[in-house]
Write a structure and sequence with these properties.
- 38% of the residues lie in helices and 13% in strands.
- The protein is elongated.
- The protein is α+β, with helices and mostly antiparallel strands.
- A hairpin with a 2-residue loop joins strand 2 and strand 3.
- The chain has five helices and four strands; from the N terminus they run H-H-H-E-H-E-E-E-H.
Length: 143
């Protein structure tokens, strides 16, 4: 298990499950208190739980709870859910027409005939092209 401070932009492995971002602060504080009863006053666990509780109270007291809920939601969104396909094309010809139209932007992820592609700049010509980039559903293993 990674600690929070080791990877501030990625949730620790142990926490990679769906979470409800509209949590009840008072319920969370009550649970933190119950958990804290198991630890000796002044222990590292006691300190960490107290810091967590006070931080949550602070966010609520300064009326930033909604912003924190959004941050919390984004923090725990599984990577698969954050993949956004900007365009879907039935054929490669239709995708190439769109690419040539000048409406494509580098970095866009598109679906062409059920397969994922990223719009990139070609090294030599500096023109936009498609790079095969499998979509999450393409990488799922059959049960």
């Amino acid at each position: 298990m990674r600690a929070f401070f080791e990877a501030p932009h990625e949730p620790p492995d142990i926490l990679l499950v769906a979470y409800h971002s509209n949590f009840d602060v008072d319920s969370v504080l009550k649970i933190l208190g119950t958990v804290n009863e198991k630890y000796q006053d002044g222990s590292p666990e006691d300190e960490a739980l107290r810091i967590s509780a006070v931080a949550l109270l602070y966010v609520r007291d300064i009326q930033k709870l909604d912003e924190y809920r959004e941050y919390f939601r984004k923090f725990y969104i599984p990577a698969i859910e954050s993949v956004v396909v900007s365009q879907t094309f039935a054929t490669r010809d239709a995708a190439n027409t769109w690419l040539a139209s000048g409406r494509a932007s580098e970095g866009e992820l598109v679906r062409i005939a059920g397969q994922g592609f990223r719009v990139i700049t070609a090294r030599k010509s500096k023109e936009l092209m498609f790079l095969r980039t499998p979509l999450p559903e393409e990488m799922e293993t059959p049960d």
